[in-house]
Every structure is written in C-alpha cells, then in structure tokens.
Specification:
Helix content is 74%, strand content 0%. It has seven helices and no strands. 33% of the residues are buried. InterPro entries: TPR-like_helical_dom_sf.
C-alpha cells in the first residue's frame, strides 16, 4: 500500500467510525518501528478533522522522528487545530528549516499549501490562545 492509499484508507475508516480498524493498521507499523508510515497514518486523522487523535499518534514517534520535515508539519497542523496555536509555531518553523515549503502532499484541500501561510496564522493566533488560556486559569 502506498502513502496515498494509506491516507485514504485511514481517512475512510475514521470517517465511518471504524477507528479500531485504523488503529490496527497503525499498530502493524508500530511493531516494525516504521515511523514514516505511522506519520503518514496520522494524516488520515488530520484529513477528517480528528486532530487530537493525530496528536496522540504523532506524540508516540516524536522522539524518534521529529527530525523529519513532514512529521514537523503534520504535528504543527494537529497542534494548531487542537487549540495549541502558540506551540504549533515552533513546529511550522522547524518544518521550514528542514526545507519544506509546499504542503500539497500533506495538506487536504481545505488547508493552505504554503508553510509560510501556516507560520503567519500561528504567529497571529498563538498570542490570542496564550491570552485566552491565561483567562481560563484565572
């Protein structure tokens, strides 16, 4: 199964509320320490707006795979849409530092394809989120 097929299959399973089947596929990659395919699998969750689930998947491989530009971008997108815009900025910047400019391969049709656009969004929304969180704490 190639990457595109994997993303489509995971997206389909999650959208049909068959998460157990999606996680079963991911566990096979985990057994083989196939970080690339685990990372790609998280894209399936991102595509159907299950950002917190994508974060959980990516958190498991963050230590071993965070040097990968696509990981950084996927992680940043999942953070951004999980109300962690302030944290997402550093990950978008890491993705850019690693040479990722165009997100066409890892972004669905409704998201910007430019890493620079995402950095601008994170710079704008990050401080707002920090302020909002401080009000919640008070």
């Amino acid at each position: 199964m190639d990457k595109k097929e994997l993303v489509n299959k995971i997206s389909y399973l999650v959208s049909k509320k068959n998460r157990d089947q999606a996680y079963s596929i991911i566990r096979k990659f985990e057994k083989n320490n196939n970080y690339e395919m685990i990372c790609v699998s998280a894209q399936g969750f991102i595509n159907v707006y299950h950002y917190r689930d994508a974060l959980k998947i990516l958190e498991k491989i963050k230590k071993e795979y965070s040097k990968n530009a696509e990981f950084c971008a996927r992680y940043a997108i999942a953070l951004f849409h999980s109300e962690k815009e302030d944290v997402s900025l550093q990950w978008f910047k890491k993705a850019k530092e690693k040479g990722l400019e165009d997100l066409s391969e890892i972004s669905n049709d409704f998201f910007s394809k430019s890493i620079d656009d995402w950095i601008k969004k994170a710079k704008f929304w990050g401080p707002i989120r920090v302020e909002e969180n401080s009000y919640k704490e008070d």
